[in-house]
Amino acid sequence: MYRVAICDDEATSLQINEALASQILQEEGIEYETVCFTDMESMIDTLSAEDAEYDVLLCDILAVGMNGIEAAKELRRLGERLSIIFISSTAEYALEGYQVDALRYLQKPIQYEKLREALLTAYKMKSVKGDTLTFQVGDKLYKIPFGEIEYLESQGRETVVSTINEQISVHMKFSDMEQLLPEDTFIRCHRSYIVNMYYVKDLARYRFLMKRGVEIPVSQLQYVDVKKKFAEF
């Protein structure tokens, strides 16, 4: 079940967003459930509850009392890692959206194809999060969902796994670690770097820019192939 939360303090916008999301998911044959909220506080209380299981949040930026960015920061502080798609009539807060690891920032009036792409990307990320990278460091066993890994870096005989929460140094050959990752999501762009393409903001000549602002080098020899694979993704 794909669970979608929608928050907007304007009743008309809320109804439109819910109707569009439902239409998209029905067309894709995805079993889903939508839950709607008209204020940020009740949305935070519901989504951060211990037994809450939501996959994506469609959230208006501008609202009375608390804006969407503030609400998202509170959700992240409480540990909620669902995908966030912001919807707004202004681009004023677009850069702030990256501070809370927002998946997309869509402007009103919402375009059907852009909403479709955002929802389906979030759905794919949910599928990826169902699988884990498992490894051991000392006497501690890690099982990290692929969807929480941003990139990996080779540092001598160690591989550093950078997740949305921490960096973990693993005594494992980089090539061996690469074999454990799904090829449709991760790409080796340099002899020392592998990136999760879900977390890439953009690709320029010889570098990836990640959503959190980290720049990852792209090998000159691999650039054409990397660019093709990223474009297809």
Task: Give the beta-strand count.
Answer: 15
The secondary-structure element order is EHEHEHEHEHEEEEEHEEEEEH
Largest sheet geometry = 5 strands, parallel
Mean pLDDT: 88
CATH class of the largest domain: Alpha Beta
Radius of gyration: 19 Å
Detailed description of the structure:
With 233 residues, the chain is α/β, with parallel strands linked by helices. The chain has two domains: 2-129, Response regulator (Rossmann fold, 3-Layer(aba) Sandwich), CATH 3.40.50; 132-232, LytTr DNA-binding domain (OB fold (Dihydrolipoamide Acetyltransferase, E2P)), CATH 2.40.50. It has seven helices and 15 strands. It has helices at 11-27, 40-47, 68-77, 94-97, 112-129, 174-178, 223-232, and strands spanning 2-7, 32-37, 56-60, 83-88, 104-107, 132-137, 140-145, 149-155, 158-163, 167-170, 186-190, 193-196, 200-204, 207-210, 215-217. The protein has a five-stranded parallel β-sheet, with helices on both faces. Strand 4, helix 4 (94-97) and strand 5 form a beta-alpha-beta unit. Helix 1 (11-27) packs across helix 5 and helix 2 runs parallel beside helix 3 (68-77). The model has no long low-confidence stretch (mean pLDDT 88).
Short description:
With 233 residues, this protein is of the alpha/beta class.
Q: What are the SSEs and their pairings?
A:
Elements: E1 2-7, H1 11-27, E2 32-37, H2 40-47, E3 56-60, H3 68-77, E4 83-88, H4 94-97, E5 104-107, H5 112-129, E6 132-137, E7 140-145, E8 149-155, E9 158-163, E10 167-170, H6 174-178, E11 186-190, E12 193-196, E13 200-204, E14 207-210, E15 215-217, H7 223-232
Parallel strand pairs: 1-2, 1-3, 3-4, 4-5
Antiparallel strand pairs: 6-7, 8-9, 8-12, 9-10, 11-12, 13-14, 14-15
